[in-house]
Amino acid sequence: MTTRDELLIHLEEAAGNWVSCESLCDKLGVSRSTVLKHISRLKDDGYAIESVPDKGYVLRESFDLLVPRKIREGLQTEVFGKKDIIYFTEIDSTNLKAKGLAASGAPEGTIVISEKQAKGRGRKTRGWFSPPRDGIYLSLILRPNIAPRSAPSMTLLTAVAIAETLLSVPGLEIAIKWPNDILARGKKLAGILTEMSTTGERIDYAVVGLGLNVNTARFPDEIKDRATSILIETGQRVRRGTLAKEYLKWHEEYYGVFQRIGFEPIRKRWKELTNIMGQQVTVETIDREYTGEVQDIDDGGALILRDETGGYQRVIFGDVTLR
Ligand code: BT5
């Protein structure tokens, strides 16, 4: 953890009480000027820190930070988030960090979470807009015992877990779009990035990254017509910590179903939560374009299309457009 993030966690744990500069220097093992520098930068980044010469510092409005303590409080899981929660106020990408940790042996259930991403990643070379403290940017390390060809099912399982989480938010109308989007009234509310490392027929680890727009009020021009947030949809701000915990609970539950029973129950639920069954779609993949009516998803999470000639096509990855 960086000194800056440790400092913020100390202030948050003080729960609205003043913390002296001396005690921060002691706890962090750094000089007074380092503390002052980090406090000043955190303030510049919008953290509500007050300072008074004889008292020290206090963090106001810390109720919705995604610090590990807030995630652990009341978390109803056995494994997810019960191991390490690696927290950042700012990082390039939580998926990148999680992949590094997984490669050096971090156990299943480890999560990486950040208040902001400087280079949030989408699929291929795309980006993910990740403004500070507005969304949930969370990556989960998994070590599923499945063949690499079944990997798309991890993304679909995650989509179901996110959809279940969002169903409890009043006034939100959501649908899953194959393979990795959650839409609200046709606009993108959440995206999933699943990345993995394999050896032969084995998955060493998978990292499942969730980007969810919670209290985002505005999007950049390039995406403002296609992106939305819970705040924009419902007019209400929602606590990110509560949502993140709900998501971890649902994800662990479906992951357990997947391991005990297989993909079938998830496939069934996915089909209830998507709006693309029976729709005419175009799917753009790396090397070609498919068109047809969505018939089904198969037991590995691939999309099954029926084209004009009555032939069936199986598509593993791609970008879907409704026609
Ligand atoms: C995705 O890619 O939807 C996967 C997004 C995953 C983001 C999470 S955040 C935590 C973890 N760490 C990471 O670095 N990434 C994951 P894709 O289907 O390729 O969609 C990307 C496209 O969505 C972009 O090209 C934009 O058009 C649009 N977009 C970018 N930011 C958005 C946002 N915040 N909300 C809605 N749409 C967005």
Task: Based on the model shown, name its key terms.
single chain, alpha+beta, 26% strand, seven-stranded mixed sheet, 323 residues, binds biotinyl-5-AMP
Give the arrangement of secondary structure elements.
Blueprint: H1 3-13, H2 21-28, H3 32-44, E1 49-52, E2 56-59, H4 68-72, E3 85-88, H5 94-103, E4 111-114, E5 135-142, H6 152-167, E6 174-177, E7 181-184, E8 187-199, E9 202-213, H7 230-234, H8 240-260, H9 264-273, E10 280-284, E11 289-297, E12 303-306, E13 312-315, E14 319-322
Parallel strand pairs: 3-4
Antiparallel strand pairs: 1-2, 4-5, 5-9, 6-7, 7-8, 8-9, 10-11, 10-14, 11-12, 12-13
Bound molecules: biotinyl-5-AMP.
Count, helices: 9
Relative strand content: 25-35%
User: What's the total count of β strands?
Assistant: 14
Largest beta-sheet characterization: 7 strands, mixed
Please give the share of residues in helix: 25-40%
Termini gap: 47 Å
Order of helices and strands: HHHEEHEHEEHEEEEHHHEEEEE
The strands making up the biggest β-sheet line up spatially as 3-4-5-9-8-7-6
Q: Spans of 5+ residues with little confidence (pLDDT < 50)?
A: none
General form = elongated
Mean pLDDT: 95
Structural class: alpha+beta
> What ligand species are in this complex?
biotinyl-5-AMP
Report on this structure.
By secondary structure, the chain is of the alpha+beta class. Helix content is 31%, strand content 26%. The chain is built from 9 helices and 14 strands. It has a 7-stranded mixed beta sheet, sandwiched between helices. A 5-stranded antiparallel beta sheet has the order 13-12-11-10-14, with no helix packed on it. A two-stranded antiparallel ribbon has the order 1-2. α1 packs across α3, α2 packs across α3 (32-44) and α6 (152-167) crosses α8. The protein is elongated and about 80 Å long. The protein binds biotinyl-5-AMP.
